[in-house]
Amino acid sequence: MRKILLAATAAATFSAMPASGQSVTGTVNITGSVAAKCKFVTSSQDLPLGELADADGGLDTSKVDGQTRTLTGWCNNSAATLSVKATALTGDQPVTSGAEAAFTDTVNYTASVSANGKSFSDISTDAVASTAANVDMFSGNIAVTLGSSTAASKKLVAGAYTGKVEVFLSPTV
Hints:
The radius of gyration is 33 Å and the shape is rod-shaped. It has one helix spanning about 1-15, and strands at about 40, 70-75, 80-90, 105, 105-115, 120-125, 135, 140-150, 155, 160-170. By secondary structure, it is mainly beta.
């Protein structure tokens, strides 16, 4: 009995071993990941508007409306979002007391942004950015256009005016 058991054990051992010259395979499993990201390639542009007032002291809307600048950027996630925040052009010299009825140091406008075939906008009358909306995965131009400018039918106070349009990209909702 012992001989039979020993013979069976030896046979099982030899059958589990590869035959001489037989190929065997080992595996190395490779993994990695890419984080969701957005990046501006061109993150800033200047937009000098020149003289804002017309001959009568009011806002010359042609100096603001239709002005465009282009940023470039990308997002690598299909859940990427974009929002925009327009900040009014404000003068560096405030309206003096008693002159508020005739003069203003503020020019409001709408900023329209288009990226990846989608459009977004924000008005400069509030300090709140537009609601973030899906812009999908993209790489390309982000056009920023000003429009609907107004100075509330008042004359503009002399001085330098500054404002800005901020575009926010986020890789996820």
